[in-house]
Amino acid sequence: MSVRPYRDIYRRTSRKIRVGPVEVGGDAPISVQTMTNTLTGDVAATIAQVRRAALAGADIVRVSCPDEESTAALAQIVPEAGVPIVADIHFHYRRAIEAAKAGAACLRINPGNIGSAARVREVVQAAKDHGCSMRIGVNAGSLERHLLEKYAEPCPEALVESALEHARILEDNDFFEFKISVKASDIFLATAAYHGLAEACDYPLHIGITEAGGLRTGTVKSAIGLGSLLWAGIGDTVRVSLSADPDEEVRAGFEILKALGLRHRGVNIVSCPSCARQQFEVIETVAVLEQRLAHITTPMTVSVIGCVVNGPGEARETDIGITGGGKGTHMVYVAGLPHHRIQNTDVVDHLVGLIEEKAREIEAERAQEAA
User: Fold this and answer.
1) What's the pLDDT tens digit per position in 273-283?
2) pLDDT band at 3 (very low <50, low <70, confident <90, very high)
3) Contact present, 252 and 227 (Cβ < 8 Å)
4) Do the Cβ atoms of 226 and 196 come closer than 8 Å?
């Protein structure tokens, strides 16, 4: 097998923490997060949204806890969620204590913003008593006044300084089970801040381009920002922040990780943009395949190429492939080799059947190895 050093990504060395049963940092897989947009007090709606996110692959889900009703609801949400729940706390220390008691796996909080040293100690003690980790969440849009006065505007140095100030508060309270984020909506600001923070500490980093935008624009911005950080080995858990359904954030996160070879979940479709050489409707075929294969979590790669110019070459690198062959028939490849021909009308149904069968084979092999 040929060596491909240009694909190597060397992850930054960080300490490991836990968010419930999910390990974050160290040698743990990079986890994918999202956040609910329901009113947390609406228990049924929040549970339903968390479950849909988990079905899409979310490892961790954050919920907002601005009031007592929200933290009280956590006691019902956490047992039904199926994934660890992070309680999003901003300024009120009692909400953090209530969330910890209600079963939150992690508290998203900036300890410097919740008042006196005594209040911080109470929150830390609650986290220790109930097995909570924390996330220090610095955001360019809500930097502390003294840092804005010092730096005149949000900048990478200000974000890093804010993060380290909050980290020292937890360290002074003998608490080290935390991760840090330094988010901004500006790609250059966010990535520069994360590079600075990665050099300044060994805590696990939660990365994201905050307030990235709608489904298309936000995904593009996040792919550029998060992709560059992950390629540099920075990032232990990710959220793609979109003005869209939380499920879409999860899917986008996995697609970014999949593209970098950092984590594989589901079918990776390699497809051509189509042109006049195509021998079947590539765009429509891929759109339908993505919908019909969404239930498959087994990692595999499928190529869908409309003609024979690049098709055979792409098929050699995939588990299953199809190439437009002309005269209403197309060549299907299995394990990189030509396998059989099919008629034009059978493309989608035939491929779905082959892919589902391949997924069953892979899962059976895994089960046998694990036995």
Assistant:
1) 988 888 888 99
2) low
3) no
4) no
